[in-house]
Design brief:
The chain is α/β, with parallel strands linked by helices and about 350 residues long. It folds into 2 domains: about 1-185 and about 335-350, 3-Layer(aba) Sandwich (Rossmann fold), CATH 3.40.50; about 195-325, Glycogen Phosphorylase B (Rossmann fold, 3-Layer(aba) Sandwich), CATH 3.40.50.2000. Helices cover about 40% and strands about 15% of the residues. It has helices spanning about 15-25, 40-45, 70-100, 135-145, 210-220, 250-260, 270-280, 290-305, 315-325, 335-345, and strands at about 1-5, 30-35, 50-55, 105, 120, 150-155, 180, 195-200, 230, 240, 245, 260-265, 280-285, 310. α1 (about 15-25) runs parallel beside α2 (about 40-45) and α1 (about 15-25) crosses α10 (about 335-345). The longest helix is centred in the N-terminal third of the chain and has 30 residues, at about 70-100.
């Protein structure tokens, strides 16, 4: 059976959380074809050099620098986004005609589905946490509309005691039978290792904010005490930039460093949060400016006393590190392979 696996290219989180699912599907004997774009596709090609891969550009989300600018930006760009989705789907259908997929899995790619084939959407935002209730309701309406094109919507969270809060719960406009809560997805496992790295700073996300974040971190590096490691989230470069600064780390090395770190400073992207939930430990967040979901998740976790956050405009690394002692951190008590098995269980009805 041939499966198309589409992956959103907004940051690297969708790609990293898809890796254990793709590996499991390979183990089960399925023929996997990867469809993605930009750095996410680069990463997936490195992880799966033997798999066929197609480049298909996502709809062009470029977040405004400030959250309050989201509403005018959304209305200014909405037509372009819709046209891009339609164009992306047409291009996917061209790939489909060539490959004749039996089943389709898409991580947050609304343009990758087929009306005549079982199609599954991995998504953690059933409600986009945008600044106004009107837009939040509009996002639910949009997801409810798109849900009719997918067999199931696979939510990488728990039905109860959730990590996403309102983002993926209390959704009234999507039929309950369409939604499957599969549990957090992560490529990582908790390991019993000495925590000999004082601070791991993970820089990631879409440009230009990724580079702005990198520059601000580098300006403050010399003021930090202890062993500090920085990853830049640039898989196209690979390897080490200089001592304890890496352009990009293979997943196994990244898993090791996160297991060894006393404190992790990163974006509050949901894929990172799932990794931290699996590994355990303390974290502090700097949400990507203009990404309402990251700002919501950072506030949600701070309210639960799990982790704190600061804004990119004003963060001070020394102060952020000092504040981390007031938060409980992540417990690290979940094996994410259970979530992968849940996906296999759900799709098995159609395989």
């Amino acid at each position: 059976m041939k499966i198309a696996f589409g992956v959103c290219s907004l940051g690297l989180g969708h790609a990293t959380r898809s890796i254990p699912v793709i590996k499991k599907l390979e183990e089960e004997g399925f023929d996997i074809v990867i469809i993605s774009h930009n750095r996410a596709l680069t990463l997936l090609k490195k992880e799966f050099p033997n798999l066929k891969a197609y480049e298909l550009e996502d709809f062009p989300i470029k977040y405004p620098p400030k959250a309050h600018q989201f509403i005018p930006y959304f209305f200014a760009k909405s037509n372009k986004i819709v046209r891009s989705l339609i164009s992306g789907h047409k291009n996917f259908l061209k790939i489909y005609e060539r490959e004749k997929f039996d089943l389709i899995i898409s991580d947050s790619r609304f343009d990758i589905f087929h009306v005549d084939k079982p199609s599954f959407l991995i998504i953690h935002q059933l409600r986009f946490m945008v600044p106004t209730k009107f837009l939040r309701d509009l996002s639910m309406f949009y997801n409810a509309y798109m849900a009719k094109y997918f067999t199931k919507m696979l939510v990488p969270d728990f039905k109860n005691n959730s990590l996403t809060g309102e983002m993926s719960h209390g959704i009234s406009w999507i039929p309950k039978e369409k939604i499957e809560y599969i549990g957090p997805l992560s490529s990582f496992q908790r390991r019993d290792m000495e925590r000999d790295i004082d601070i791991l700073i993970s820089i990631s996300g879409p440009e230009p904010q990724r580079t702005l974040f990198e520059n601000m971190v580098m300006e403050q590096m010399n003021s930090l005490n202890g062993k500090v490691v920085v990853t830049l989230g640039r898989p196209e470069n690979g390897g080490k930039k200089r001592k304890n600064v890496y352009y990009y780390l293979p997943l196994k090395k990244r898993e090791e460093l996160m297991n060894r770190s006393k404190l992790i400073i990163s974006r509050s992207g949901y894929s990172t949060i799932m990794d931290l939930y699996v590994l355990g430990g303390k974290a502090m967040f700097i949400p990507t400016p203009g990404q309402p979901e990251q700002e919501y998740l950072a506030k949600y976790l701070e309210k639960r006393k799990i982790a704190g956050y600061d804004s990119q405009d004003s963060f001070n690394l020394k102060e952020l590190i000092e504040r981390s002692k007031y938060y409980e951190g992540f417990k690290g008590n979940y094996n994410a392979l259970q979530s992968v098995e849940n996906i296999i269980r759900v799709i098995s009805r159609w395989t």
